[in-house]
Amino acid sequence: MKKAIVTYETFHGSAKKVAQTIADKINCKCINVDTPFEAEDLREINTVILVFNFRGPYTAQLTKLYLSRVKDQLKTKNVILVGEGLFSEKEFPIVAQEIYDNNPSKTFNKFFVNGQLRVETLFPEERALLDKFSQLTGMEIKDMGQLDLNKAEQVALEIEKLLESDEFNEVVEEAPKSDTKWVCSVCGYVHEGENPPEKCPLCGVPSSKFRKVD
Ligand SMILES: Cc1cc2nc3c(=O)[nH]c(=O)nc-3n(C[C@H](O)[C@H](O)[C@H](O)COP(=O)(O)O)c2cc1C
């Protein structure tokens, strides 16, 4: 059993299929990013693989929330991001870099898989968002793309190689855990550490909006 875990963020199942393809290949647990997950659960794991889909302004929202909860542990872990979307292959490195800058990890790798849009499966709020986008850009909303599970298989192979590499298996000491907690006065996000974060990973307000929990 590899010391990795795959978590995914999905709305219509494509990112889940990509995640499951990877988890099957490397024989590890695959959970929805919504699943309550304690930072402690990461103790036996050296690699976290996050699969998320592109959703305009809401891209990787739950993934970022998940990462903010395990941020302190990530410094000693290997993190792999797998983005899945229609036309964001070029944009993906920018999103990935932003995620890495907010959650530095021991190693960091990223892969992109082509996804699909099927109009009849859209939720009303998604349809409204896409209609707005269509009005702004003139883009027609129609069935687009085809989920590329061959690409997901290739990514799984690449990840398998990484998991076996010396770099991934080099042990890094865990930082001692801090008992100090800070709560964001705007959205309630709780941060553990000697100091508050520079900005809230959830709502983006500066550190001055955090108060220490007694
Ligand atoms: C509301 C909405 C917004 C989307 N925004 C983007 C986007 O910004 N870039 C992109 O490449 N794909 C975008 N897509 C396409 C999705 O990434 C694609 O449909 C993906 O396969 C959905 O994954 P899922 O089945 O796991 O939900 C969007 C789809 C929806 C429904």
Spatial gap, N to C terminus? 41 Å
Q: How much β-strand is present in the residues?
A: 15-25%
- The fourth-level CATH homologous superfamily of the largest domain is Flavodoxin domain
**Which structural class matches the secondary elements?**
alpha/beta
CATH C-level class of the largest domain: Alpha Beta
In short:
By secondary structure, the chain is α/β, with parallel strands linked by helices.
Helix and strand topology:
Elements: E1 4-9, H1 14-26, E2 29-32, E3 47-53, H2 61-69, H3 71-74, E4 78-85, H4 92-102, E5 107-114, E6 116-117, H5 124-137, E7 144-145, H6 149-164, H7 166-169, E8 181-184, E9 190-192, E10 210-213
Parallel strand pairs: 1-2, 1-3, 3-4, 4-5
Antiparallel strand pairs: 6-7, 8-9, 8-10
Helix pairs in contact: 1-6
Explain this structure to me?
Helices cover 33% and strands 22% of the residues. By secondary structure, the protein is of the alpha/beta class. It folds into two domains: 174 residues, Rossmann fold; 37 residues, Rubrerythrin, domain 2, CATH 2.20.28.10. A five-stranded parallel sheet has the order 2-1-3-4-5, with helices on both faces. A three-stranded antiparallel sheet has the order 9-8-10, with no helix packed on it. The structure holds flavin mononucleotide. The site of flavin mononucleotide has 22 residues, from helix 1, strand 4, strand 6 and helix 5.
What brief labels describe this structure?
214 residues; alpha/beta; Rossmann fold; Rubrerythrin, domain 2; 2 domains; 33% helix
